[in-house]
Amino acid sequence: MSETPYPKHTALNLAASGVPVLPLRRGKVPFGNCTTCADNACGGRPNMKTPGPCRCPNVCHAWAAATTDPAVIVSPPWAAAWRQAVCVGYHPGGAGLTVVDLDNADAIAWARAELPATRTVPTTRGEHWIYRGAMRSMNAVRPGVDIKSTMAYARYLGPGTGTMADLPETVRALAVKEPSPARPAPLSITAPAGGRECPHRTPAYLERGIAMAEQRITEARSGVHATVYRTFLAVLSRHGRCGCLTDAHVGRLFTAAQTRGETPRHCTDAWANARATLGL
């Protein structure tokens, strides 16, 4: 595919429709960290697997820098980046979208046989199939197939053709890692066994904590998978060793996650991984 002739104009049009954009330099890659943010000095994450607290106005953090604010797009220091940009990138998850990146003819044939038809955009080597709905991003989910949604960027290659469909469960399932043989997936969501004296002064303390955790999950606008894991980790780190958590509490957290698109399998895996991280 050819380079975008007027990337800033394209970016403004996308931003006006609610799609977060960022400039891509030669090589179709994001601009690197500025000197302030280099070597993680700003407190962000250099590879942007998870966003840090950095508020740098530069185009420093790939997908996490993507914006829909036209004032940011046209003003310094972004203006200098657009002069060097060769094309426009966008954050699909930030727009509530998922891009299934099909890299070759075999991958396209698989998609046509297994996935519902949706908006399609031709790429240099294959096609982007774009669905309505965000999910976890992951590369190489099967031969020639990558998923770009939350915590990822995709190159804008035009509006495409066809009517956009809702994200199918078939695509979500592709991003579910198989459990390690050394650590089989748990069969239940039973809370950790207690035995210690509960350090919480009143039941209201726990109730408030669970309610806040539910709110954090349901209000997540992007990076839902990571938000669910971090919330589970926070709840377990505070309440996981004293025995006050019940299956009802855990069920409330799972329900909140599933209302944001997580599958029961995702919830179970995230809970198990959080427990393992804390040694529970």
In short, what is this structure?
This protein has 280 residues and is an alpha+beta fold. The protein has helices at residues 7-16, 70-74, 78-84, 105-114, 169-174, 203-218, 224-239, 247-259, 264-278; strands spanning 21-25, 29-30, 87-90, 97-102, 119-122, 127-132, 138-142, 145-148, 154-155, 165-166.
Unreliably modeled segments: 179-191
Number of E strands: 10
Q: Count of helical segments? A: 9
- Biggest beta sheet attributes: 6 strands, mixed
The percentage helix is: 25-40%
Q: Roughly what fraction of the amino acids lie in strands?
A: 5-15%
Shape: globular
Q: What is the chain-wise order of helices and strands?
A: HEEHHEEHEEEEEEHHHHH
Span between N and C termini?
A: 51 Å
Please tell me the overall pLDDT.
Answer: 83
- Rg calculated over all Cα atoms: 21 Å
Secondary-structure content class: alpha+beta
Features:
280 residues; alpha+beta; 6-stranded mixed beta sheet; 4-stranded antiparallel beta sheet; 9 helices; 35% helix
What report would you give on this structure?
The protein is α+β, with helices and mostly antiparallel strands and 280 residues long. The protein is built from nine helices and ten strands. The chain has helices at residues 7-16, 70-74, 78-84, 105-114, 169-174, 203-218, 224-239, 247-259, 264-278, and strands at 21-25, 29-30, 87-90, 97-102, 119-122, 127-132, 138-142, 145-148, 154-155, 165-166. Helix 6 (203-218) packs antiparallel against helix 7 (224-239), helix 6 (203-218) packs parallel to helix 8 (247-259) and helix 7 (224-239) packs across helix 9. The chain is globular, with a radius of gyration of 21 Å. It starts with 6 loop residues before the first helix and ends with a helix. The model is unreliable at 179-191 (pLDDT under 50).
